[in-house]
Amino acid sequence: MLTDFLPTRREQLADPMLREVYTDVRHELMLSLPAEPRHARRIILVRTDDAPFTERDRQVVSLMRPYVHELWLDAERRRGAAPRLSSREWEVLVLVGGGLTHAEVADVLFISPATVRKHMEHVRERLGVHSAAAAAALALPFAPPLRPDRVVAELRS
Question: Is pLDDT of 55 > 80?
Answer without folding.
Answer: yes
